[in-house]
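User: Hi! I'm working on a homework problem where we have to compare a predicted structure to a textbook description. Could you give me the structure for the chain below?
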Amino acid sequence: MKLMSATLVVAWAGAVQAVQLGADARAERAVTLYQSGPAEWHDQFPAPGPGPYQFIDLPAPPLAGSCALLGAEVRQIGYPASASPNVGDSVRLYVSDPQLGAPIQAATVAWRDGQQFGLALQSGPAKGAILPWQAGAAWARLLQTPEQTWLSADAQADADLSLRCAALGPAWSAHYQATREGDALVVHLDALIRVPAAQDWGVAAVTLSSQVGAVQAPMMMARVAEFSAESGPSVSDGQWQYRFADAMAMVGGSVQGYRLFSQRVPIQRQHELNFGFNYNQPAVALRANRVWTLTNRDQGGTAQAWVAGQLRINGPAPGFELEGQASLPDLAVGASHRLRLGPSLALQGQLRQNGRVERGASWVSEWTLTLENGSGEPLTAVLRPQIARDAVIDRLPGQRVMAPGEVATLVFSLTEPKRR
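Assistant: Happy to help. Predicted structure tokens:
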């Protein structure tokens, strides 16, 4: 039952009265979300009066040891113990009996007798069956029990009181959407915020955070459609943060996306051709791989620090066809990163052996490398022959810029010492 009054009095330890603080007593809530790790919330209660206190309507069960009371003299904090399920509750099970189906299943408590329960399975071959269960049962163990979302505190506050806690709950992930425009990428950072279905975090001021390396603080101001930031992301002591200017509703089960900033960055597109030499095969077809190098330097003169995330690259208008996907690490302003985007469909190659002769203590072989640019735009072919340290290649360039449709023939020699 939800308690609606701002301040209610309940029993504390059977004698002392405790002030019960719920949603109506709270002035505001601030939430910090991470890409990995528990979420943190900060509730502020104006002048709650003398304690002790019991905090109710918390968004999720607080992690033991994570809570702090600011503005109060604290003697003890009481965390909720693991709850036992009651009739009608839903629980999650790890099922060890393979005859019952998948190892992770949901069940409903059909009956309870002390610490013995009847669990009605909701899926699998035994769906609908009510099986007896108690702690230590061989066929299954509980993974999740009903959550208790309260906190007690033997504390005294003379003025305003702040509660900070951490809990397993909402998280965010970084997704970069990019469109290629020639040798530049227009990159948008979108934040995807997921709230677990069983949790309601109410309306809160939200900050996104992520641990990063040492990066330079950004300068650019960022704006989004409805939820805007007073400034762009900030980086301090290895922590990347983005604070929304407007509070937002964090409803259980919701998935919401927000655009944080956009940036145009230069890229260097190359087609790498790695190849070895096989004297038993006179001709070998070669395939190149696309490798792009992007630099976190905004071509408009400003830049943002980038946090790790997933990158999707679309081609230029009007088709905007998918050109590649990759993972991005944290990128400081001015830093570069190589994107390996898979096989190239534009560059084809063939390596052919022309002959091999013996010269003193060495073998000298001649080869022909044929390259074809099958695309409608210029490309840079990077040639990476795989040879021993004491071998020498002559007349083979490290890279070649090819016009659309060009076919290039490169003849070179390979000198290798004789092997015993």
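For your comparison, note the following. The radius of gyration is 31 Å. Residues 90-144 form one domain. Good luck with the assignment!
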